[in-house]
Amino acid sequence: RVLLLGEGNFSFAASLCGAAGTHVVATCYESEEEVCGRGRAAESIRRLREAGAEVVFSVDCTKLKDYFLPEQREFDCIYFNFPHCGRKAGVVKNRELLARFFHSSAEVLTEEGEVHVALCNGQGGTPADQPRREWHNSWQIVAVAAGAGFILSNVHPFKAETIHGYKCTGYRSQDKSFCIEGALNHIFTRSTPLPCFKPMICKIELESQKVSFQVPQVLVDKINRGFLGLNSNHPVRTVKEKLTADLSQVFPLKNIDYCLSLLHQGHLNGVCHSNIFWIVLSPEETLSTEEMSSGLANAVFFSQVDFCRDTDKNGWVNVQEGCHISKQYYLRPSLLPCAQAIIQRGAFLPGTLHVLSGPVFRKCLITPYSMPVFHEVVFVCAVNRGTENRCIQMLVNSIKTSTCSLHQTVSGFKLNVSLQEATNFETTQLNDFVAFESQLSKIQYFICMEADTSGSCEKSSCVGIIRTELVNSELVVVFASLNLDLLAMLICGISDWRMLWTSDTRFLRQFPGGELRLFKSFSLYPPFYVHDVSFWVPDGEQFDEVAFHTIARQVSSEMVVSIQLMDSFHQWETGRKSLCYRLTFQSCDKALSRQEVAEMQLLFRKEINQRLRVTLR
Predict the structure, then answer these.
(1) I need a labelling partner for 96 at 20 to 30 A (CA). Which of 25, 231, 326, 448 fits?
(2) Whole-prediction pTM value?
């Protein structure tokens, strides 16, 4: 079922009505008498009716549900070509028309339906317009559609010459056609709604005791996704399986994922306290043996809070009076300590490549490649002293062969893989992943990759590290750690790490059966919104910028893509310090409206005031 709106002479509708299996409902804003006086309109209307199409007059595009019975409101496609308020309406009035139209369309469109809007060149305000108008002088169609829950999923030229019999009528009030040279057809689809996460409780067995803890709010939608599970088609798993399959041709392989703990106890030497998700446990008496054997690292997750605890500004879980307080733990920020523990226990076979993989969790600043959670794979091999360099080269060669083969197959371009000594590596090249690993232990080598597209290499990305450790006078252990999420992004051309975690089924549909393909975004040119916040820092306290960023992640559900320090001011009379930050909000997969961002900003101000004890300005 196809609904056509704002038809001037019905020539566009007439060109569609012959399509097999398509029922056309063609409408216009004017009365039948007004329209039939237009050249060729009467002929087009006659053709439509003879073909079994419905023709409806005096239809207001902002009140569509009023014209159709409930059982008639399920349209698969809605077309609105060259909408306009009439006369010399400015961009603001036409934005308002589009906003009301999109809200109205949402009430008569199927869940998988599309809305097609054709606009003259420059009106839409997207990079597809050439030349592109200034944002304030455009119709801002993507931002307007977001207010009704739509995302721009495709845009292509509106080729009037290929539409048989079509003639653009233009302004209703004038005998003047629109200039449709360079016009674009914008195709919108429904977005998944913005998330509203309930607090989650995780129940696990630790040191032979059944315990529970509240999952940090910023991780609720990520901690139990199962991307590396046996039934997963996620590209992260495909990359891991390809790596291990190729390495098994070079080394005897042993997978030890089953014994990895989600929580660690104690303190990581060299790691900043604020980069860790700290947890406080409580005894859990009601967990059955059957429940204990399922889930991530023997964990069971519940989305209902029935425990008396809250979280302070540093992410600590506080157990209120009357509750039992157990030891303090933290969510694992890396698998390297797990690998080192295995070596210290002597639970390894010399010459065998041991494989550990799973999600790891870190508090970090908001930057394009800083991930609060990602999937890490660690390869561990104990070899005779003096042969470690040969082992490292075999490891790197196999990793290089696997990743280059995948990238070449997916994109057709070459992937350059290099091993760089840590002593020659510029600190400016360190991303958040390797910067954190550098805090854990001394690194000998960095594994770097860059895509060679049409002869010009993109910026190099560090995706892994290699280090060695002397076990005894005869054995040396080689550790290689890789960020699987970064690898999947490089291979599949995914520019935003958040897309890996989307709940939109259109993401995984692009990787049927786990087959890696070049990713095509289903949300084009998402709008961004900028808000500033300034405040006084508490006297005598060091401002915790990581906590500041973590709160921004939490209240926006990862919609904040950038935080910039705009100004720092010292008031010498009082000794107080004021900071001003600029937050940029943008979604990679969902409709994000101006109003929703304004609400996030208000909540952010409230949270930093309460949790960081800053005084808002």
Answers:
(1) 25
(2) 0.88
